[in-house]
Amino acid sequence: MALLDHLRELRNRLFKSAIAVVLATVAGFMVYQPMLAALIKPIRDLNESQGRQASLNFDGVASSFDLMIQVSVFLGVILASPVWLYQLWAFIVPGLHKKERRLALSFVAAAVPLFVGGVTMAWLVLPNAVRVLTDFTPSGGSNFISAQVYLSFVLRLLLAFGIAFLLPVVLVGLNLAGILRGEQLIKSWRITVFLVCLFAAMAAPGGDAMSMFYLAGPMLLLFFLAIGLCVLNDRRRARRAVKRAAETEATADVATPSSELKNL
């Protein structure tokens, strides 16, 4: 495809993804109140279980409305993940012949549960992260937390875990498409570990090592699992190529029938 065709294809994919996110955001508005109650539950637990004085403050006239927009859009991104993940892979593998279309559907079938699983794991980590970070409050102090800062922290944590769990699936998908080989990943495992830890340090909100560990550990496990799958697929592809070459060599010296020559 020419460059303009690629750009046109990207525009169409982004447009479809945006429509899906907007429609899902409307659904997010409907569940905003129960979602907000669940997000601020760790703050309430500090008051009830540990006897601390902690509360969320809305420091502006439009702060509550801004937060409603942010949470609803975030819910829209999660709910629309099957659509925009498919559009992402459909752009990476252009043309989408019959075999590639099955490959794209398989990618989405694996990517969506992992993305949602990463968000779920971050949800489980959230109470501990809030408790650990607020433990540094001096004795007798109170935690009057800005709602904007707190929800930004929470949404970044959830999104970082979701994307982190998604990246290994992208590696396997690129390998299945013949773009990336497992040997390349094995040779660069040291830089992979470094980049994963660097990503975890940058993506994990807050400066605590616990959030970074919770993010880097599963990422490394999934990355090495992805590398193993890529190596197995490369070996399967190599065996298939050897078999195809042997079959071609066996039939190379067979004379072409005269009937076929006449047809040609």
TrEMBL record:
Single biological process term from Gene Ontology: intracellular protein transmembrane transport
Swiss-Prot/TrEMBL keywords: Cell membrane, Membrane, Protein transport, Translocation, Transmembrane, Transmembrane helix, Transport
Annotated GO CC locations: TAT protein transport complex
GO MF terms held by the record: proton motive force dependent protein transmembrane transporter activity
Compartment(s): Cell membrane; Membrane
Entry function: Part of the twin-arginine translocation (Tat) system that transports large folded proteins containing a characteristic twin-arginine motif in their signal peptide across membranes. Together with TatB, TatC is part of a receptor directly interacting with Tat signal peptides.
Protein name: Sec-independent protein translocase protein TatC
